[in-house]
Fold this sequence. Notes:
Blueprint: H1 4-28, H2 34-60
Helix pairs in contact: 1-2
Amino acid sequence: MVSQAELSSLQTAIRELGERITAAADELVGTSDEGVAIDLYEVERSLRIAQRRITKATQGLDS
């Protein structure tokens, strides 16, 4: 069975990945690869949504 600790670990991993993706996108803004930055920002937004969904799932688990 999935535990709150495991879901918390997943949240942390997703948050850290999102931070890395945002940093990569920030480096591309204003370059000829700005289109890639836009795609990366979209990925980061999707990860934030995933993080919120995991938070909701965690709250639904019995302690």
